[in-house]
Queue: 2 jobs
Job 1
Amino acid sequence: MSRFLIISNRLPIQLNLTEDNIEATPSVGGLATGMSSVFESFDSLWIGWSGIDRNTLTEEQKERVDQALLKEKCIDVQLSQEEVELYYEGFSNKTIWPLFHYFNQYVKYEEDQWQAYQDVNRKFADVIAENMEGVDRIWIHDYHLLLLPELVKKRFQDATIGFFLHIPFPSYELFRILPWRTEIIKGMLGADLLGFHTFDYERHFMSAVRRLLGYDININEINLPQRIVKVDNFPMGIDYDKFHNAALDSQKRSVREKSEVRKELERYYLLYPETRFIISIDRLDYTKGLINRLEAFEYFLQNYPEYREKVTLVLLAVPSRIGVEQYQQMKSEVDEIVGRINGEFSSINRVPIWYFYRSLPFENLVDLYNYCEIALITPIRDGMNLVAKEFIASKSDGRGVLILSEMAGAAKEMSEAIIINPNNKPQIAEAIKKAIEMPLDEQIERNTVLQKRLKRYNVRKWATDFLNTLDKVRQNEQKYLVKKLTERTKVNILEDIKQSKNRIFFLDYDGTLIDFRDNPQHAKPDTELYELLDNLSENPSNRVVLISGRDKSTFEEWFGKKPYTLIVEHGVWIRPAGSDWEMIEQLDDSWKDNIRSSLEFYVDRTPGSFVEEKNFSLVWHYRKTDPELGLNRAIELKDELTSLVANLNLEILEGNKVIEIKNRGINKGRAAQKVLQLNPAEKIVAIGDDWTDEYLFSAIPSEAVTIKVGMANTLAGYKVENYEEVRDFLKRIAAIS
Ligand code: ADQ
């Protein structure tokens, strides 16, 4: 039976131990509340930390904890107090959390915390390994476990792994500050699918991958040497019906059944019918913008005195990460500002801020959402913000106004709210005024649109979308893997080659026999490669043809004295073994002046790029440029050249970080055909890495063995990972007599 694993730092339940009992209550926080609804509808196990230090328990208590966890389909990753301090309060919450939320000033770089982060990620991998039986999918969550996808992939190559980041992914300019940035990115790339809340986070992540690892990216797919990773955005939804129906129920309840919160609010409203309640709910976290919210509220009271007696801010802050210094500081600061505002603006009967520092049961939370007319949600940065969505879902009669920070991921989908900049106090104050004065029909109009969207894209849909995409990624991967050159096929090919005494090997050079370098002139053949090619061509049954886009003089310098056939400039020139260079076809190069000036213009505007001039082609290289700038300029350049080349009977070739302009119809395929016409071969092997080699694969007889280096789509029959695998395979061929 197939089973699905959910992995997150904390389990969705909290265990409260008493002398003779254990009570399980739901954990607070976006991830836990959101995923819990999904968890119940799958055959799944949830792996995470229970929050309990087992060292403090008796054997009997441990037993009871295990049973309680198992009942909830949870498995505990056991962490010591020290690990919690270094990995959770330390690296997760003092490094990643502030950095990813743009609070650079709070970021700590502590080697021992990083070490603990790695160790704990490995611990999670161990627990996953113990529970892998029958598992078909693993869904890892959030910033505490950024290294985990790679750790699991290394141990279980066939595992299907999804990863979702619940917080923002910062721009590269910030991310690059992290000393362990490359490890983190590599860790994440262990997943088959990476999900973010918004396109911006996805874009930032892609940028980091390009800049740090230089992988090719095809829209939202990253081509790793062995596989493809898909990256997409999935804005997380909520359990809409749960909130909406609970709000409807609450309204219908008799006075006796009503919650204390609701009774209190209603009582107050009877006394002061003009009162507008503004709700503010968050974990007490500096990213949530509580201080600026309070200051903006103060500004509102100062500047709109006519409303002083008419508004009450219900400020609900859930204790969070109390072990981290900034959180303790912030708590004191909030206490102080609340005290100051209440001190200044209270009257005998009224206090402008009702301040609660606690977690509330679900029913009370819904009562607050439902009863309060306005929600003031002003995070400085927030991955998504589910509170904004929960508030709208709880507006059972459609009335209510949401004021939402543009820095919350949710703002991207909730443009019908009043969107504010959390640092702009006058703007927030004006938004509060606008919310108080907003006509009911406008409120309903805005909320109807929002509710429809939230109902449709609810948390179940979010999870299903993510998991369906994960399945599709795996199916696609299978397609790629079908072509992977397995050991068994290698043995068969070697056996086949052995049977023939007339073999030819068409070998591309860059990326196929040697790795890429920033400067193409540095990709010189090394001793191992010379030896390999010499050994291969020594055998009279073998003919070696190096077939490349390189220029004639470079190949002459590197291989001029070698007994192999050389074909350069994609098939313009050929130098048969032991003879002189000759042109395969007569060509004209008078077009070069026209094109050169365009390319030079791009060199001036793109630092690191340069033009290479071959006899019959011009090449613009951009491997050394800023990767994103290079890519943008390449698109621009291609666009510009398209109209020019059409009239000159030229064509544009897009190679690996190069754009080449050359005479139309000249390609490796045509050149290989000419070689085969003159000297037919019985056994043909062709190996290449970029799409100029696709001409080669398509032009030679279909029974030839064609091998693509890399995972991209290809006409070739097989794929290998990299040039090293090519060399290994060729060595085995060279060993055949
Ligand atoms: P959080 O930072 O925890 O989540 P948020 O998305 O607002 O932020 O979720 C908070 C959750 O806690 C809500 O479901 C809310 O109902 C609950 N909650 C808040 N106050 C409460 C209280 N006093 N009592 C009980 N429950 C309370 C992280 C990211 C977010 C992202 C989520 C989900 O920081 O940006 O939206 O994960 O991906």
Note: The two ends are 50 Å apart (CA to CA).
Job 2
Amino acid sequence: MMKSQFKKAFIFDLDGVIVDTAKFHFLAWKNLAESLEVSFSEEENEQLKGVSRINSLQKILEWGNKSISEDKFNSLMAQKNEEYLAFVDRMSPEDILPGVLETLTYLKENNYPIALGSASKNARHILTKVGLTSYFDHIVDGNEVSKAKPDPEVFLKGCELLGVEPEQAIVFEDSQAGIKAANTAHMLSVGIGDKAVLSEADFNFEGFTELTEDTLKTLTNFKK
Ligand code: G6P
Ligand code: MG
């Protein structure tokens, strides 16, 4: 039996890691930005990944040099979420990204503690839609944190609930903000997606299909 201080735990981001909801966020933000005549491309979108809904809208307004009333701000947030949820409504277990289920199954079978660490207030709803809730020992989402990524609060809460030190945590993230958060908290950061975009990560993979059992063992044995 391994001593608990050497035990590793896994924290998964949700959007863009477990499911490809990043594209739904992109479409909804793009529509909103265009309605305000603010230009919005993949490049701007990259800066919104992992960022809370409120901070995302603030950024779009800053980019367009726009100032709006509080009422308008709140109605835009509601409108964006409504549009986003219309996409989410059509989701099913088929939307789980390739390799994710295999990785979660392997980790569960090997008794690794697993948490979700997401900025999204819709995280629980999405996990239910795709049937993955039971894989997670703990879920920390946008309803439970006050400081958004790149602040590490969401991951630190995950560690606390899992009963591990930050140094024992391995974080899967598709966003620059999330990789920063994991690094700041001295966790092992694993970038899922474009290596050029996630160059600050300790390890990079295009997707979970690359994460074989041997690769997962390398991650759990790695000392940062
Ligand atoms: C994730 C996504 C962001 C999104 C944020 C809040 O971190 O990467 O694009 O803005 O969650 O999501 P929500 O579902 O609460 O609007
Ligand atoms: Mg993400």
Note: The chain has a mean pLDDT of 95.
